[in-house]
Structures are given as C-alpha cells and as structure tokens.
Design brief:
This protein has a six-stranded parallel sheet, sandwiched between helices. It is globular, with a radius of gyration of 17 Å. The longest helix is centred in the last third of the chain and has 19 residues, at about 155-175. Helix 2 (about 65-75) packs across helix 3 (about 90-105). It has nine helices and six strands, in the order E-H-E-H-E-H-E-H-H-H-E-H-E-H-H. The chain is of the alpha/beta class and about 250 residues long.
C-alpha cells in the first residue's frame, strides 16, 4: 500500500480524457521546463507531468540520493490516480529507476512502463571524475562537449553564477549514488540513447535488460547526449508508440 502523504505543490487534476500519466524527470542541471512542450506533441490521452527536482539551494545542497527519491515520491503521490509511466533522461533515468524500485518493493505498485534515456544501467561500475568538485572552467568545458547548452548562454556570466551551483548539486547526488542489488522490476523497460553520446556505450545501455523480467527494448537515435532535444519529434513519436502498446 502506498504512503498517505501530501505533495509539496498543488496541481489541478487532469481532465477525464486523460488515460495515462507520464512522469518526466530531467537531467542534471535541468528543470521541468525541459518538457514544457511535450504535452502538445504527445497524444491528448497522455497527461505529461514534468517533475521538478528539489534540494538545489541553501541547506538542501547536501541532499542524498535516497532522500531525494523519497521527496519526489511525496511530490507525485497524489497523482497516482491514473495508470502511469515514468521517463527520465540521464540523471532523471537513475531517479526514475529508483522511484520504480521503491514503489514496487515497499508499496506494491509499479508504472506501466519505465523509459530511461542516455544513462548506463545502474549496476554498471562508473569510472568518472567527480565533476561536482571540479573548477568552474572544467564544468563549463563539459557543457560545451555535451552540446546541450547554447554558446550564448555559456558565455553569460550571470547565468553561470546561478546555474553552476545547481549543476554541482545534481552532479554530487548522482556521483555519490551507490547501487544496491535488489529484486528486478516487473514492468517493461525501454532504453533510448544517442549514437554520438560519449557518456554511454551500446553495451551499457543493453545492460538495462538485467533490471527487468518483463519486456526490454532499446532504440538508438542520432545525436549526442541531448538527442531528446535535437531529435525531439522522433523521440516523442517513439514514446507515443511505446505507451500506445499498453492496455491502459
């Protein structure tokens, strides 16, 4: 049975025409605005629910991954009245996976589908530097390499002063994440990746298959780490088809 807790923000209930809710979790440094136009591009029957990531400022900067998952569960708890699916990109993929595991293990509920993007399987050993501790110039160079932020924005000092602490906070959470073995998921997992994304390999995406005893699918799109933006139409068409396969 799921916990009886209140969400931290109010959101109108969806019209009766909605048949499935899609919770969307952004990448490190991203916000719910990443998904601002998804509702207009997906079928009307899908209620797109972008989830904002908390704990990025002030005393909350030391948030741990487990506490972040619990906080996000409280944020979406009042909105599990419809069949639902979960989508997460990069950091959001890891969050979506752990939220799904927590729901199944402790509350006996699960999404119809878990869709993860641009992230190696959680049990894969990571060999990356702790970027959240690196100097600003290294972080900015990394943003240049990933290609998800315009050069005009990266050259804006005011933007960087506000943005880099948020990015560091997110990077700290995921870089300190420790995978704990547990029961595999019973829901389908679909993985999408970018052909030119240097942060993953084909093998590390395929490895997600070990996390489910249900259907597993993998689709590679053109583009780099932020292919969900540059090839948005193709990505959303694919997601639409995946969700249409569920008898919700």
């Amino acid at each position: 049975m799921r916990p009886n807790v209140n969400t931290h923000f109010s959101r109108p209930k969806s019209p009766y025409s909605k048949r499935l809710r899609l919770f969307c979790f952004p990448y490190a440094g991203g916000s719910s605005a990443v998904f601002r136009n998804w509702a207009a591009l997906l079928p009307d029957s899908i209620d797109v629910f972008p989830v904002e990531i908390p704990g990025r400022r002030g005393k909350d900067n030391d948030v741990q991954f487990d506490s972040l998952v619990n906080c996000l569960l409280r944020r979406i708890d009042d909105y599990l009245d419809l069949p639902f699916a979960i989508f997460g990109h990069s950091m959001g993929a890891l969050i979506g996976f752990e939220i799904t595991r927590t729901m199944m293990e402790h509350y006996g509920i699960a999404p119809l589908h878990l869709i993860v993007s641009a992230r190696q399987a959680p049990h894969e050993i990571q060999k990356r530097p702790n970027l959240h501790m690196m100097p600003d110039r290294i972080l900015v160079n990394k943003l240049h390499e990933l290609g998800g932020t315009s050069e005009d924005i990266l050259g804006n000092e005011s933007f960087l002063r506000a943005y880099l602490p948020i990015l560091r906070s997110d990077l700290k959470v995921i870089e300190e994440y420790q995978y704990e073995p547990g029961p595999i998921l019973s829901c389908p997992i679909s993985v999408i990746g970018g052909r030119d994304d240097d942060s993953t390999t084909y093998e590390s995406l395929v490895s997600w298959a070990k996390q489910t005893d249900s259907i597993f699918t993998l689709r590679i799109f053109p583009g780099n780490h932020f292919f969900i933006n540059t090839y948005q139409g193709q990505v959303l068409n694919y997601i639409s088809n995946l969700l249409a396969e569920n008898p919700y």
